[in-house]
Amino acid sequence: MDPIQTLVKNLAEKHGRSRESVLPILQGVVEQEKFLSERSMIEIAREIDIPAADVYGTATFYSFLETKPAGKFIIRVCKTITCAMKGKNQILFAIQDMLKISLGETTPDKQFTLLETNCLGWCHKAPAMLINDEIYTELTPEKVREILSAYMKVNANH
Amino acid sequence: MATSNQLKRVDFIFRNENDWEKILSSTLKRKPQELINELISSELKGRGGAGFPTGLKWKLTAESKEKEKYVICNADEGEPGTFKDREILSRVPYKVLTAMAICGYITGAKRGFIYLRGEYKFLLPELNKVIDEFDYYCQETNLDFKISIFMGSGAYICGEETALMESMEGKRGEPRNKPPFPTQAGFMGKPTVINNVETLVHTFTIFKYGAKKFYDLGVQYSRGTKLFSVSGDTPKPGIYELELGMSLQDFVYEFGDGDTKAVQVGGASGFLVPRKKFKDAAIGFKGKLTGISLPTGGSMMLFNSSRSMFNVLDNYLEFFREESCGQCTPCRVGCQQLLLGIKAVKRGEKPASYLDKLLRLTETMQYTAKCGLGQSVANSFSSIVENFREEMIY
Question: Could you tell me the pLDDT band of residue B1, with boundaries at 50, 70 and 90?
Fold first, then answer.
């Protein structure tokens, strides 16, 4: 069995093989692989015995379930009203400038993907962003540069 | 009535008492019927924004003869400007779990779920720890109730109760037709109580202190307290527990920066109130005799005079266009056209009178959209366009 098959099988063992397990299994694959490949969705469909189109339909509904290859760290900058008012664009510029990528792109070394997202629920500490599951608030361009440097450093040491 | 010129701050929700075991065991000794009556007499209404009477919801579920029932805590807090539920789950999670178990006892449900939005995944380790402790307590005391967390994955619409259930069933989060309501056929087609995080904590307060204590706070039709998420142009953004029924004027005195131009009450799906109407507006549920009363899930966003209301509306509409689930045409196409429409007017490609056509479109959406998302786009759209028409055009 290849790694994807094993992963899906293990997730199905853990969460069950009923329709209600679809979302937890999809989330499990994304956690490991960072995105859902066509292959992984077909594998999930086979494992719990539902049409692959249903798995695809479910997956593409949710904004945190990527179906395009993504980097190891997915940066999601909040773009909803309060963050937009409190300088979201400066944060985006700082990130784009540092990583040399535009919105929606992944760095060539497959480390960072930059996305925008809707309200993260940190309006009182705007602007905010998520890096994978980690939240960063009250951002300034300087603060963002520090945060990203730390991520890059950790990475370089691995 | 709380109409005097000061806000009434209260501290129930975050009061850290650490006596949940005592409250749980003493409440479970009382009869379900008695507890339902207590809840009904408190006049607690749902704190997610829609304001359905909580006691009635529990009663309807309790009356169902079905064997399998569920309790769901809706922690898919996605409304722009709302961030209170996360605070509750990180500061007083045991109150939520206790309330869910009491609800299970009253309605006959043995399973509870917390639907947590994907954006709050970092809460998981702590929350799971508390749930494990709670689980241990339930086993020790032979209480047959099990709670688990179901993670969302970034979809605003899943905060709508039936969309949430679709999502839990492994499908796209598309709202269902109502009726049947969740109290008859909810998760897996079984009777389900689904409540907002804050609503559950209020039931904890009510079972602990009695319905009267809760009922005595607030005003007629809007009893009790509410958490407000305050953000935007304010010197003190944050979360505040206040009595319901306050006037918006008093709120702005307290939280404004001296230059408040408008307040968005209830998030992007709520209403924008311009300065000249502050004194006529009160925060509470419908049914108040005088003035405008504005229900809210607790989102209060302040804008000062440096803000362009066109940009605000543009931001909301982009939000709705992305978050519309796409299953019903009025909402899917309506949100797109509203966004294109205001941009076209701004650029001068359409005459100003086109705004009136767009207003009629929101009216159509209000009547024909399948769920609250499409229906409530009209709220912010009409309140912004009608009050700041010149900003939309020039």
Answer: very low
Region B341-361 average pLDDT: 98
B173 touches chain A (CB under 8 A): yes
ipTM of the complex: 0.96
Nearest Cβ partner of B80 from A27, A57, A80? A80
Do the strands A73-78 and A129-131 form a parallel or antiparallel pair, or are they unpaired?
antiparallel
The predicted model gives B187-197 an average pLDDT of 97
List strands edge to edge, sheet with A129-131: A112-117, A73-78, A129-131, A134-136
- Integer angstrom CA distances of residue B79 from A122, B14, B170: 11, 21, 23
CB < 8 Å to A123, chain B: 80-83, 229, 231-232, 237, 301
Which residue do the tokens 């990130």 mark?
Answer: A95
B77 touches chain A (CB under 8 A): yes
Domain B20-215 annotated CATH 2.10.10.70: no
Of A62, A79, A81, the CB nearest to B153: A62
Backbone angles phi, psi at B243, to 5 degrees: -70, 145
Domain B309-393 has CATH 2.60.120.10: no
Q: Is A73-156 CATH 3.40.30.10?
A: yes
- Residues of chain B in contact with residue A85, where contact means CB-CB under 8 angstroms, are 232-233, 303, 307
